[in-house]
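Case study 2.
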Amino acid sequence: MRTAEISRDTRETKIYLKIDLDGKGRVSVDTGVGFFNHMLELFGVHSGVDLTVRCEGDTDVDFHHSVEDVGICLGKAFKEALGDKKGIARFADRVVPMDECAALVALDISGRPFLNFEKKMSGKIGEFDAELVEEFMRAFAFNAGVNLYIDLLKGGNMHHEAEAIFKAFAKCVQDAVKIVSDKVPSSKGVL
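Prediction:
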């Protein structure tokens, strides 16, 4: 079973996260950040991953620590759940529209962390700082050990921009973790 549970307890956040890569898209999320809950729900539903997240953070300061630390935990759980990565597709890319917006995401489960986030997001989505989308993706990529490329092909409403990014990310995860062979997908024999 490709599952993992992560707990993280710092002065800024207290997090419990559970993931099942072979789930049915069942999601139970409470981060204390409404818009972020919505994005994580989209991720679970559209990736088919079962995801449970509980986060108590210093949201009286702002949402940064909660969002970044959930990204750290999701990345660590993702890496743990993948194990030796035997048989996975490894690579994926998707373009996903959301009304007037469209996002391109490409993913390589390479063991090498890197994030290329092409267009900076700024401003507010309700109470949520849009720049936190990039912070979450960076925390995930560097803790999961993946190459992650994100480009907002067409912008507009910032809620729609973030939603297109999270949905494209989810579909990439779904595609890249699929079991497609009985070998580790690398010329080196290891990822």
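The helical segments are 34-47, 64-82, 132-144, 158-176.
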